[in-house]
Write the structure tokens for this entry.
Amino acid sequence: MNLNFSETEKMIQKVAREFAENEVKDLAELIDRDSIFPEDTFNKMVKCGFTGIGIPTEYGGSGGTDIEKVIVVSEIAKKCAATAAILSIHGIFGQAILKFGTDEQKSKYLPLVANGGKKGAFALTEANAGSDAGAVKTRAVLDGDNYILNGTKCFITGGGQADYVMVFASTDTSKGIRGLSAFVVEKGTPGFSIGKIEDKMGIRASETVELIFDNCVIPKENLVGVEGKGFKMAMISLDGARIGVAAQAFGIAEGALEEAVKYMKERVQFGSPIASFQGLQWYIAEMATKTETAKWMTYRAASLRASGENHTKEAAIAKLNASETARFVTNLALQIHGGYGYMKDYPLERMVRDAKITEIYEGTSEIHKVVISRAVLG
């Protein structure tokens, strides 16, 4: 792996950094406070080609690899984790269609979700099927030329905004995870509705909802791949999603570190900037070391994914480490700010809240420890 960015990657980083500073930063507090989906910002990300990174140009995408996706997501996460989450999780749908979809599905959906302005979502989780995906109760029954879906999904990021949702349902309950299949359900399909909209602690502008399927009729050509392969498809898709969460997490950490450095240089106590105090200097050293480690673990996983190599363990390591780093760094950055950090005048209290979810969604830290230990132990 080359640890130096190419000229193209440097250009993408510059564009993403300027976008985050000019289009994202000033809205972060508002959209967090009022739980507002940043529709205008999303459309601007579409125009910049961010939503199409990783989708080949022949399908209307921007091309590029997972490296570029990590660059863009992390730069945006420095200023607003919710906006970064929206971009990152939107991409899971397109990547799943690209890898597992039919030629017809690729031609139909990819141009729309890449740079066409349409939104995608990924619906696996249920009330009793979080870490245990084999407990999914949503059913899909073939009836002539259609499948009939019945069930409820919960904690679905972007589900209320999505034009297309990849839904995982059991087509054979006797087979457990080997009976799971994946389907594309389009917004407006009869029998498909939005239930509870969650009132969350963090990433509040990234909508999280319940999805309800009540005799929802979808054409059988909306089956993605083949029946019974849904679990494997979900796990492969989640490997990529975990790299995206790791990018969000180390981006949050970088943003918090930048805020801490700025504050320490400006804040004067006992006649000197607090940056001159050794104890706080050591905080900065710890924060910088952990952030750099998380960053390059994430790029390592993204590099393996981009080259087509197995990266399940590396994605889990990157996500586990980066999420714990985000929590650690934001907490210390808030501590450095003292009472001011606890107030909404500064972004640290939001960053602390946003960081926590990275230890939970797309697989909890505990699940990642299971994945890593199994890979190491064999």
